[in-house]
Amino acid sequence: MQTLYTQNVKGTSDYTGGEQRLRRQIRNLLEQQFSCFGYEEAETSALSELEWLTSKYGGGEEITKEIYQFSDQRGRELGLRYDLTMPLARLLTLNPGLRLPYRRFEMGKVFRDGPTKRGRLREFWQCDADVIGLTGPEAELELFQLAMQSFDQLDIPVVIRWNNRRLLAEVLTALGVPEALLSSVMLTLDKLAKISRTDVATELSGKGLNAASTNRLMELIDRDPQQLTLTALSIAYGLEDQPGYREAMRLQQLLTALNMDEVCIFDLFLSRGLSFYTGTVYEIFDATGQYTSSLGSGGRYDGMISKLAGDPELELPAVGLSFGLESVMELYRQQTQAEAMLRNCAAIDVAVIPIGDTLVEAVRTSGLLRAAGISTITDTSGRKLGKLLNSLYTRGIRFVVLIGEDEVRTQQVKLRDLAEGVEMAVPVEEAVHRLTQLCL
To answer: 269 and 281 in contact (C-beta within 8 Å)?
Structure first.
């Protein structure tokens, strides 16, 4: 008989103990921040019709090839969600009566059949917040504030790099890039931090961009970032009346007025890989530079909902923000409080130990303690008492309730404080009262 080697599929993981508690803590913290900003929770399906899913994603083959695809028993072609933005657009299409502006958050797993690296898996959690019904830049500003406050709570210093795809299209057009190549050229520019300058030039030429436009674009890429401010771009390319430039400048003015511009930095060549983004786009990075993967990202996608609904009149402005839980975990786990949580076991306040034929009474007592909100286990291992008490104390369990046959006859229990080394015989009700005072 063949022996099966059991292991996780590459790019997926299981989580237990301190690791899982730490992940839950981050999700709880983000949920608190979402609620603090007035966002309400939604939950969407991980499954979609494949034809619908692949027909709506921007980014061409580079994106759609990473969608997990399969057939169900009826032969229907399905796909797993690549992110949480597409399911939100479907939710809005199917629920036209939602009150606007609609502020929603969702946390759940998404799936990408792509390359793996530190902080990038094939099955991973995203934590998203979106604003539907605001034309901006107020919505972008709010999401920037949400991101900054969330990472401040996590004690992770970040920088938010942002751009406007409409503005980038205006600059590329001024450099002679044809409209038909704009999205494709943006995809190449989005790789600037990942591939060499030579590879960028080669890829641009391979997409059919003529030599003159390629040279002008490469010259722009080589400029000092201080020469690529919004004002400098406007002067160089006559953008003062262009809508993308006006959108970007209004956001920049708000960021400056609120002293957020040292964290939220304009980056002309940031474009994101999905072409459904119509305006502002942004990515969040570790400010120290030690961790290079993105910690979060987002952007404005005003045209998506009407496209999904097949109704050009259903124009709903939308902008979103997504936190990558795996990347955030990579940084958060290095902190002192996180290291302690990873080392320690689950927090248990009390262990109830039956001695002799007292299991029913022990289980009943444990139930009373749990009903009072006290974390309690019933230890039925039958180990020698001395070794058992040492083991419980090592696990961080301070209080023990001992119930022997004598205690049952006298309608009492023995309450022992393992840290102080003291023990007292008290009625069950008094034991619950004392432990409530000590543990809660």
So the answer is: no
Nearest to 141 by CA among 310, 1, 48, 259: 259
Chain centroid offset of residue 310 CA: 30
User: Could you give the C-alpha distances from 153 to 157, 203, 329, in angstroms and in order?
Assistant: 10, 41, 14
DSSP letter at 179 equals G
* Interhelix angle 197-206/211-221, nearest 10 degrees: 150
CA 74 to CA 335: how far, in whole Å?
49
Closest CA to 369 of 156, 21, 361: 361
β-pairing, 422-426 vs 413-417, is antiparallel
For residue 59, the model assigns a pLDDT of 47
For residue 174, the 8-state DSSP code is: H
Side-chain-side CA neighbours of residue 309 (13 Å): 19
CB 82 within 8 A of CB 67: yes
Q: What is the pLDDT of residue 308?
A: 72
Residue 436: C-alpha distances to residues 64, 129, 373, 413 (Å): 55, 38, 8, 16
End-to-end CA distance of the chain: 55
pLDDT digits (tens, 9 = 90+) for 384-399: 999 999 999 988 899 9
Position 28, amino acid = N
Cα angle 15, 17, 18 (rounded to 5 degrees) comes to 100
For residue 232, CA distances in Å to 171, 226, 240, 263, 306 come to 12, 9, 11, 21, 35
Per-residue pLDDT at 375: 96
> How many Cβ atoms from other residues are within 10 Å of residue 49's Cβ?
13
Nearest to 27 by CA among 145, 120, 102, 108: 108
Q: Cα(296)–Cα(282) distance, rounded to whole angstroms?
A: 8
CB 67: neighbour CB atoms within 10 A? 19
251: which 2 tokens? 């956001």
Sign of CA dihedral 84, 90, 93, 94: negative
> For the chain, which residues score pLDDT lower than 70?
1-5, 56-62, 119, 273-274, 309-310, 336, 340-341, 344-345
Cis peptide before 427 (omega within 30 of 0): no
